[in-house]
Amino acid sequence: MAGWESAGLGHTADASFEDLRARIPINVASDWDLFVADLDGEVVGMLAMKPAENQLDQLFLSPDHQGRGIGRQLLDFAKARSPGGLWLRTAEKNTRAIAFYESASFVFERREPRFEYDRNDVYYRWMQGEFTG
After folding, report:
1. pLDDT at res. 13
2. Residue 133: its pLDDT value, please?
3. I need a labelling partner for 124 at 20 to 30 A (CA). Which of 47, 68, 97, 98 fits?
4. Over the chain, what HEC string results?
5. 78-93 per-residue burial string, b: 16 or more CB within 10 A, e: under 16
6. Domain map of the chain by residue range?
């Protein structure tokens, strides 16, 4: 939750921490593979993938641990688990995430409105061996 809020995009759709935590087992049972970055017993990041869709669904880091290479390690882990490629979407206003994904060879595909959140999302894809200019 703090990772999302640190992006400067506001609160997570009026969901409480308890609401978000309660969704985790439901999402894992349905379609997520969930991984965490643990640093000396503290969860500092999370990665949620939907392997059936080759989607990187969520990647969040604790604000205190951003900029230390942990996000890149999680992203490299996701790439290794999906060598055939990945796609993701993020809020168009999340410029820090967009710069991060573009620096990791994700390629912009399209922009779409996301009416339920009153924002635009941008979609990116990554293919192993694909080079960007």
Report:
1. 56
2. 42
3. 68
4. CHHHHCCCCCCCCCCCHHHHHHHHHHHHHHCCEEEEEEECCEEEEEEEEEHHHCEEEEEEECHHHCCCCHHHHHHHHHHHHCCCCEEEEEECCCHHHHHHHHHCCCEEEEEEEEHHHCEEEEEEEECCCCCCC
5. bbeebeeebbbbbbbb
6. 2-126
